Amino acid sequence: MIDTVNGDVSFWHAQLGPHRPRAPLRNSISVDVCIVGAGLTGLWTAYYLKQASPAMSIVVVDQRFVGFGASGRNGGWLSAAVAGSLDRYAQRRGVDAACALQRAMIDAVDEVIRVAHDEGINADIVKGGVLRVARTPSQLLRLSKASAAARRWGDSQTTLSAESTRQRINVAGALGGSFSANGARLHPAKLVRGLADVVEAMGVAIYEATPVTAIRPHEAVTPCGTISAQFVVRATEGFTAAIPSMHRLWLPMNSSMIVTVPLPAATWDEIGWRGGETLGDSAHTFMYAQRTADGRVAVGGRGVPYRYGSRIDRNGETAPVTVAELRKVLTEFFPVLRDVPVEHAWSGVLGVPRDWCATVGLDRATGLAAAGGYVGHGVAATNLAGRTLRDLILDHDSDLIHLPWVNWRARTWEPEPLRWLGVRALYLAYRAADRAEASGRSTTSAFARVADMIAGR
Ligand SMILES: Cc1cc2nc3c(=O)[nH]c(=O)nc-3n(C[C@H](O)[C@H](O)[C@H](O)COP(=O)(O)OP(=O)(O)OC[C@H]3O[C@@H](n4cnc5c(N)ncnc54)[C@H](O)[C@@H]3O)c2cc1C
Fold first, then answer.
1. Which CATH number fits domain 12-78+189-250+355-402: 3.40.50.10330, 1.10.287.130, 3.60.15.10, 3.50.50.60?
2. Which end of the chain is more exposed for a tag (fewer CB within 10 A), N or C?
3. What are the extents of the domains in the chain?
């Protein structure tokens, strides 16, 4: 039996080995654009800005290193799922605008694949689509409603019988599923590290080990010096709560993952999963998974959702109870994996706005721009955000700057202890709903409706 590595940022980074360290900022500088955060939001923004305006001086600074945050830790679902509620965007900005956002997300999936290909970033991308399974009657009902809604917004999902679901991936107890071709699986650290190299080669400076302690109009302050800039882009997602005055803006929500050792061919024969689909379920505390390029199963879920006072994990250490929960999910889905060693467990933080809707925006007067609050759907959305920030900063009147998430505002989270109590109650209720639904009922449990009320969804 091997010992499970716990933390170490993520399996994805560990698999690639130590990253090439970049120097910290050494003195105050003045540039056109300063981007805070070297995750996908920051790097896509730098990529598209530099491409559109090669003379622009752009720096990206990160408190730790490229891909330290969710971008180097995620489940590798490059999906067209909109990071927010399309209903909510439609209520405030109109149905056509919400449909346009869905279309833009579908395009973003292909755009990431195109850039990775054109720039020679090998991120193990396979466009195998997204398979969601239902393992209880109430999940099946929800899944079919969600697929019908997705079709209305323009994501052509098909519903699958139990048999055709299991022909794709042999998930134990699958009662049915839905499939969308608009999704791909990828290796997160390969994408984010590769993109950083490309951006650097274009002439963007990346400073690591440079924490930004304050963001002010036209300024980012660090212990190593102040960066004066016409535009300062905040791309700090789940870490935003640590920035002064932004404590209650986006709640840092944890998501945790485990990955198995590589599986033998005979096991894959039993599981199927030959198409590279990303796999998720329809539970309230849902799981997400991928078959990695080197033949492992990586599976994620919520774990310990939130730490009191918006405390943020450092290197992805994961509570043993969460590792055990994810192991249970893995075995329930694939009983053949009961004795397969788990090689690595890790966690990361998502940024959750109070209304669960992502946003991208610029205040031209102060030069302050930001994007994030993607909850768990940022891999493709960061690309759309990067192109949108390019157009906002360069003042291009493109279709992108009219999408409904642009300059979207949500109220702030409640102060503690209400915040902690609320999130705890939310997940207790969702877990209770999943347990109640596992008994075979065909309607969504009342616990879930209570949780939705607490969440304000
Ligand atoms: C475990 C997990 C699984 C996920 N799975 C998926 C998935 O399969 N599909 C999907 O679409 N989404 C997924 N997500 C969400 C997705 O990864 C994120 O939405 C996306 O990566 C956000 O990118 P970002 O660049 O905005 O933020 P991050 O990648 O978090 O980057 C923020 C960066 O800012 C830096 N930073 C923060 N504060 C400061 C500061 N004060 N000074 C300097 N630097 C700072 C951080 O060090 C970090 O590098 C997952 C997230 C997690 C945690």
1. 3.50.50.60
2. N
3. 12-78+189-250+355-402, 415-457
pLDDT along the chain (457 residues), means of 10: 90 95 98 98 99 98 98 98 93 96 98 98 98 96 94 94 97 97 98 98 98 98 97 98 92 96 98 96 92 98 83 88 96 97 97 95 98 97 98 98 96 91 85 84 71 68
Residue 373 Cβ contacting ligand 1 at under 6 Å: no
Question: For the chain, how long is the longest CA-to-CA vector?
Answer: 63
Q: For ligand 1, say whether the CB of 171 is within 6 Å of any of its atoms.
A: no
- Give buried/exposed letters for 162-198 (b at 16+ CB in 10 A, else e): beebbebbbbeebbbbbbbbbbbbbbbbbbbbbbbbb
Ligand 1, closest atom to CA 255? 1
Ligand 1 binding pocket includes 39 (Cβ within 6 Å)? yes
Q: Which of 109, 124, 236, 287 to mutate to test the pocket of ligand 1 (most atoms within 8 A of CB)?
A: 236
Its pTM stands at 0.97
Count other C-beta atoms under 10 Å from residue 244's C-beta.
9
Amino acid present at 382: T
Q: Could you tell me if the CB of 129 is within 6 A of ligand 1?
A: no
Q: Is 348 in the pocket of ligand 1 (CB under 6 A)?
A: yes
